């Protein structure tokens, strides 16, 4: 199908909830994707952080192919070999003490389960999340998501039991978290909110405050998990272990899968029938996820993210030093944000025209979530493209 037709059909029939880029991506390989006209793009968006091991990693493709010929669906009420294999692999890499897993299909679903488990376990009702935090858009997860743009149209249906604390402020956490708090949910590095890294001591303080009030500490590692930040889990940068962890995005290599991984006593408070998912833990997704974990571990992708991330952050810092319209670079590993003093929509569009796919966080932060297998060469190319665009932007502003 040609590109014009693809765009026409999607624009006609797809629910209008996505801000669209004007290209259709039909093929991917590693850190590169191709549109219907055959044009190549460096993918620094990585499908919003999904393609951590790269597009169509041969081991993931092989695992999917093999499983598709064997068994695609198997409800959670039956046992399954591929599910068992994945559970073992997840437990092996999960922070110590987290040993019960609910398998689902997305990040928001993994958050829903974490919230329900915390509510059930503590018997309390207050949930605290962070200003600028993002946890998904289903009604439960949306209640914990801060952005008023996402919340306001549904205000009447959003739980009143949620409160927001400023991210990074220990004093505010101490003020808000009390004996009525069932759970505190935060991202160790806020992704959607603009790549804000937890300040030193913050997560440890949250851990202590939650312990003091018997509140469940939930880390949402949907975006930060599986090595992106230079450690398997972002929480490891601060040596803090949550009670429950939410993961998704990268786990399936593109096949939808999420997981809520928690302490047994918390997860076990959800009894038979109190939570479930028809597709959760299906063998196809589990086979893909097992292959993804193998690749991450065997290729030591967290270390690769650390090394390449440091290098790329250095390049971005050079840009900040050179261009006055740039304010700051933030992030860890290959989860980086470049804050501009101006709206960055035009920059994203120009980058696209030059063969580079980028992501935004809000109006003025360019977010980089490339596959961890991306080459140094492609990161350098991305840097050159961006330098060219910012030089043009500054010239344009100077002429005004
Ligand atoms: C930290 C975090 N939590 C939850 C979600 C929701 O994930 P999903 O879109 O798979 O529901 C996202 C998605 O961007 C996320 O970044």
CATH class of the largest domain: Alpha Beta
Helix content: 25-40%
Instruction: Assess the beta-strand content as a share of residues.
Output: 15-25%
**Class per helix and strand makeup:** alpha/beta
The CATH topology assignment of the largest domain is Aspartate Aminotransferase, domain 2
Radius of gyration, CA atoms, in whole angstroms: 21 Å
Shape: globular
Low-confidence stretches: none
- Architecture of the largest domain in CATH? 3-Layer(aba) Sandwich
Largest sheet: 7 strands, mixed
CATH superfamily of the largest domain: Type I PLP-dependent aspartate aminotransferase-like (Major domain)
Termini, distance in Å?
Answer: 43 Å
For the record, the count of structural domains works out to: 2
**Ions, cofactors and other bound molecules:** pyridoxal-5'-phosphate
Query: Strand tally, please?
Result: 17
Number of helices: 14
Calculate the mean pLDDT score and round it. 97
Strand order in the largest sheet: 4-12-11-10-7-5-6
